[in-house]
Amino acid sequence: MTDSAAVPSADELADGKPAGGFAWSNMFVHPEDDPRSEGGFDDERTVLVEYLRDQRLTLQLKCADLNAEQLARRAVPPSTMSLIGLVRHLAEVERGWFRRTMAGEDAPRLYRTEADPDEDFNGAVADPDVVAEAWRTWRAEVEFAERLVDAIPDLGTTGTMGDGETISLRELLVHMIEEYARHNGHADLLRELIDGRVGQ
pTM for the complete prediction? Predict the structure, then answer.
């Protein structure tokens, strides 16, 4: 993930825009080094768990080798979306679904208040401490979710949402795959804007 050929030259960036194009040189990793799976799973649980794992790994790939300023770079106005904002947002999503809904914990929100319901994105500033805290939190929530899912033998097991409705672990895992896939699409565009790295 440190291929120097992936970084555009000064001439390529002279007009303020990353160089376009599609090639292994400006992608994240060569296929042989990609940490994600190639599919081919046989049972339902493995399909759901491994596809979610791959989506989480994709988020990490999109953010690899960037400094705090780059991670906090926002999309075009009026959007407040940034890569580190996505990390904070998805940490909050993981916490809500797995701790509160499935485990029944009284887990307070991390980045959302009545005064600022979009604090996950609004508070994603170019500060190394903010970036480090976001990654620590995201990883802690992912680790909790993985342990919880491993400990629940039946995908039909339900959790209770804030509105009193229930959701099965099966549906929740599908929803999380969808949630990450949607935001990884955002991350694609954000990363290409930063340094031209595309795809995967």
Answer: 0.82
